[in-house]
Design goal:
The structure is a single chain. The chain is an alpha/beta fold. The protein folds into two domains: about 5-15 and about 235-420, Enolpyruvate transferase domain (UDP-n-acetylglucosamine1-carboxyvinyl-transferase, Chain, Alpha-beta prism); about 20-230, Enolpyruvate transferase domain (UDP-n-acetylglucosamine1-carboxyvinyl-transferase, Chain), CATH 3.65.10.10. It has helices at about 20-30, 45-55, 90-100, 120-130, 165-175, 190-205, 235-245, 265-275, 305-315, 335-345, 375-390, 410-415; strands at about 5, 10-15, 35-40, 60-65, 70, 85, 105-110, 135, 145-150, 155-160, 180-185, 210, 215-220, 230, 250-255, 280, 285-290, 295-300, 320-325, 350-355, 355-360, 370, 390-395, 420. It has a four-stranded mixed sheet with strand order 22-23-1-24, with helices on one face. Strands 2-15-17-16 form a four-stranded mixed sheet, with helices on one face. A hairpin with an 8-residue loop joins strand 8 and strand 9 (about 145-150).
Length: about 425
């Protein structure tokens, strides 16, 4: 699928769908729990359904009623999958299910699509090895497919966790080990996502201690209980609309966002305000009026997924915008630093690549054909760029948006974008 998009301004009100990160944590914890959990307003997307299918392979029972998901858990005792577990394009599912597989006394093979097979998981495998698990990369390059044989025994481990999911996977699964676990987190990135994981442990009354998100002590032989939880709206998805609406001429209201939630990408609002954006939180929702923005230095250490959208914003901001401290964006579905530089340059932007980010100067974008490289966040960011580029733009391989935000094209059209799918 390709997106054809013409220069447009956005006006209107939309509701943002549920959080991918919360939905996947809910599915994994419901799987590990005893009893039937109910998840209201889950995100229904390629990534979340990959997680559901993976958890079913370990014995969870799943029912979709149309408005909520019901999952009958395995009471902390996953069964050995009968076949290879394929997580599709979901890196989050890969990391959480590697941890879940460590609870099984038997060999589990986990794989994914070509992008997943390029994404490193070695830091998590190494950490699990120190906890009594056989955990190996089958191609011996630190990437999937991986072979896991439990069982997780607890003890002491260290994890290099620039990708926060490595640590989150340990924190979710180590409470089920027979003995206590001590974890030292090294070079932790994306800290709000670890805080999100801890919030789920807190709701489950899991016993742990932590010190400055660098040292964790988790009690063993614990249990997860069935729960009933509504999934909050996704700030990572909302980022594209918040950034697009900050462009001159736009005026939109986003509903469903909870600023008390732990999601790190809510920090995009503060970054845009720093650049001069007119963003107000009202009783009706988040109201954004477009205006001329100023270039700024943006630290994205805790919100790497915002890089593609903010790179587009940088093209419109007066002066120079520098995006820093986000080298881990190179480890996502694509090397998002390199690919965003390349694709924005095709649109006429002046962009310089840094080791840990980008320097973007105000540019006049011109419509052309660009490629998402099968990366959902690139597809959405490049569609955003098409809203402000003179003429018409074509985004190739835009079906990638279905991984996290299938409604994205429809919501853009509802706000007045001149958009067509081919």
């Amino acid at each position: 699928m390709n997106i054809i998009i013409n220069q447009s301004t956005l006006n209107g009100t939309i509701t943002i769908p549920g959080s991918k990160s919360h939905t996947i944590r809910a599915v994994v914890i419901a799987t590990l729990a005893e009893g039937i959990s109910q998840i209201d307003a889950p995100l229904v997307s390629g990534d979340t359904l990959s997680c559901v299918h993976g958890c079913q392979a370990f014995g969870a029972k799943f029912v979709d009623t149309g408005t909520e998901w019901r999952i009958e858990g395995i009471g902390g005792k996953p069964t050995l999958p009968a076949d290879i577990v394929d997580v599709g394009n979901s890196g989050t599912s890969m990391n959480f299910l590697i941890g879940l597989a460590s609870l099984v006394n038997g060999f589990t093979i986990l794989t994914g699509d070509p992008q997943i097979k390029r994404r490193p998981v070695q830091p998590l495998l190494t950490a699990l090895q120190k906890l009594g698990v056989e955990a190996h990369s089958a191609p011996q390059n630190g990437c999937p497919p991986v072979v896991i044989k439990g069982t997780l025994k607890g003890g002491y481990s260290e994890v290099k966790s620039k990708i926060s999911q490595y640590l989150s996977s340990l924190l979710v699964n180590c409470p089920l080990s027979p003995t206590d676990t001590e974890i030292k987190a090294i070079d932790l990135g994306e800290k709000p996502y670890v805080q999100m994981t801890l919030s789920w442990l807190d709701k489950q009354k899991i016993s742990y201690q932590q010190e400055n998100l660098t040292h964790f002590w988790v009690k063993g032989s614990q249990h997860y209980q069935a729960f009933h939880q509504r999934i909050p709206a996704d700030f990572s998805s909302a980022t594209f609309f918040i950034c697009a609406a900050a462009m001159p001429g736009c005026n939109i209201m986003l509903q469903g966002l909870d600023f008390d939630d732990t999601q790190g990408d809510k920090g995009v609002v503060d970054l845009l305000r720093h650049m001069g954006a007119d963003i107000q939180l009202t009783d009706e929702g988040l109201h954004i009026r477009g205006c001329q923005l100023k270039g700024a230095e943006l630290d994205l250490a805790d919100m790497p997924d915002a890089l593609p959208a903010l790179a587009v914003v940088g093209c419109l901001a007066q002066g120079k915008t520098t995006i820093r401290n986000v080298a881990h964006a190179r480890l996502k579905e694509t090397d998002r630093i390199a690919t965003m530089r390349h694709e924005l340059t095709l649109l006429g932007a002046t962009v310089e690549e840094l080791e840990d980010g980008l320097i973007i100067r105000q540019s006049n974008l011109k419509g052309t054909t660009v490629d998402s490289h099968h990366d959902h966040r690139l597809a959405m960011a490049l569609a955003m760029a098409g809203l402000v580029a003179k003429g018409s733009s074509r985004v190739l391989n835009a079906e990638a948006v279905g991984v996290t935000f299938p409604e994205f094209p429809d919501l853009l059209a509802r706000l007045g974008a001149s958009i067509e799918l081919k």
